[in-house]
# Entry
Amino acid sequence: MSPLQPPPTHLLDKYRGEDAVALYTGRVSVRGGEAGHGRASGVVRSDDGALAVELRLPSELGGPGGGSNPEQLLAAGYAACFHGALVLLAQRAGMALSEVRVDAAVTFARDPIDGLFLLSAEIRVRLPGLDRALAAELVRNTERVCPYAKMFRQGIEHVVTVEP
# Structure
């Protein structure tokens, strides 16, 4: 097996077209688990078997904690994508980075508008040794490239279907 490599920088090349072109689709299923409730005791499995996670309601929401939750999974995806886009942009610009760290926080909160719920997110980027102005420019450019950052900024197209 060959060593893991970052994706090629040509992924940053601009696409010109009328419609979105799907490059990859991640698929998971959630079942209710012991409590019959996806958020409280759900079991997440990816279609390829690479992801298998038991969900637990955090103690802050009245659960026992002790397991992953949807906010952590979303934060992990966001941080990983942002980190990857940032490193690709730096590589394309010929910048040598070391010890890059991206921390993400996804907060589940009460929505003052409808009284229900909302999510918010925060990204913190650590770029030791890089000039602050250059680091800020790299992060701004990463926000334009990272699809998770776009999703949090612009929303996301989504479809909900009831299957027979």
